[in-house]
Fold:
Amino acid sequence: MQPLDLINRYYAGHNQARRILIAHSRRVAGLAVAVAERVGQRARVDREFVEQASMLHDIGMLQTDTPKLGCHGEQPYITHGIIGAELLRNEGLPRHALVCERHIGVGLSIEDIETQGLPLPLRDMCPQSIEEEIVAYADLFFSKTKPGQRAPEMVRELLAKYGQHKVSIFDAWHDRFTH
Ligand SMILES: [Fe+2]
Structure:
């Protein structure tokens, strides 16, 4: 399976969105693979899957209403995870689909979805496998609109808006993935 083939097929005629998606996803993949190789020295990690899923985790963004990303769909941006998941399930990629669905922030719990009134189905969308965790972790370091890699302190600041619990999850990942 070649992620770029899938992206090119779904993003045909949407060059700005495709460019932004590929640039962002490549940066996420770079960090995620580096983490996978580090963690892979002491645990079983599917490195190839991490790379593919990193390239595909945001594929659902095109159907959202996010003009700054070249996306002129109708759905709210937060739904890009479940949209991507459905798309990948239809492509016969159920494991990659779960990465799409579980990569928002450090993951969304049923309680998050309920209390924040998010337009998402009420199911747990937190990363469960090590590969899902690695992609969600790597994604936090890269904006789609700004160059450069965020410092961990910046990631913590962004997550703190959603509660200290989110920061704690990130801190635990950061500890495991950088040692
Ligand atoms: Fe992303």
Q: What stands out?
A: Residues 15-39 form the longest helix (25 residues). The domain at 3-178 is CATH 1.10.3210 (Hypothetical protein af1432). The two ends are 31 Å apart (CA to CA).
